[in-house]
Amino acid sequence: MNSTATDLRDPECIFCKIIAGEIPSERVHEDEQVIAFQDLSPKAPVHLLVVPREHHRDVRDLADRPELLAHVVQIASRVASEQADGDFRLIFNTGANAGQTVFHVHAHVLAGETLPEGEM
Ligand code: AMP
Ligand code: ZN
Predict the structure, then answer these.
(1) Which of these, 68, 76, 112, 116, could form a disulfide with 46 (CB 3.0-4.6 Å)?
(2) Ligand 1 neighbourhood includes 42 CB (under 6 angstroms)
(3) Is the C-beta atom of 40 inside 6 A of ligand 1?
(4) Per-residue pLDDT tens for 35-74?
(5) Residues with Cβ < 8 Å from 117, sequence gap 6 or more?
């Protein structure tokens, strides 16, 4: 059986629920592969999450999907240009010890004036 994005859903996963529209989000972009929405607890003037529709645990798993990983970066760049000056910090917290709390891969896009150094 072919694997589809629908197969790659975790019923317990909060981001899968956001993707399915079961939990509301402030979306700024969506296409067939990813959605991007506002982080609930922003750490910068612009703080967005770019999230593949397929449920993958973390960015290590996306190394096997280079086109999808590249698309995440492209969309991060696009939304940073739309919402700020185009410069951005891209963060993939990977593993609980690195601060990952939602185990559905997502890129944090931090942008806007005066990004603090050394912090998230
Ligand atoms: P991480 O700690 O890297 O796994 O990031 C998870 C991020 O998801 C955090 O920055 C949270 O603020 C954010 N988050 C959690 N729940 C929601 C939600 N329902 N809508 C938007 N962002 C969320
Ligand atoms: Zn998920």
Answers:
(1) 112
(2) no
(3) yes
(4) 999 999 999 999 999 999 999 999 999 999 999 999 999 9
(5) none
